Amino acid sequence: MDTETKRSRTITWADPFAIPKATAGKSGLEALREVFEGRLPPPPIAETMGFTGVHVEEGKAIFEGEPAEYLYNPIGVVHGGFAMALLDSAMGCAVHSTMKVGERYTTLEVKTNFVRPITLDTGRVRCEGTVIHRGGTIATAEGKLLAVSTGKLLAHGTTTCLIVPAQ
Questions:
Q1: In this model, does residue 68 exceed pLDDT 90?
Q2: Domain range spanning residue 137?
């Protein structure tokens, strides 16, 4: 292996249980606002993959990220998992923002369509998730991943989430 081309990356993250502990007794929107506004640390996945929550309101969540070399796959583009993680986060947090105190949710299904490759040249990306339907036991949401500089669609998807009522 050619050591001239070797790169390294060091990341740090906060206790992944800090958010659930600090937000017990709060609605989903209240909890997410604390994270998005920096009063609580981001979840480890955001640190690992290099994205952040930038806006949340009831039924909508927006994340942004920067494609990087460490996200590349063997065919020379950013791995689709980066787009999927952004879509899953934005759509899931859009649903999360509708949770009442004590309610929880989990993802049942995610569908993603890749429209364009993501590379370093793509630059910053923005992912918007919006709730389509919020029922008593099922919620659905859609998401779009866009290149910030051009507004071009990179990927889009949908999710179905199971709502677990407060006990």
A1: yes
A2: 14-164
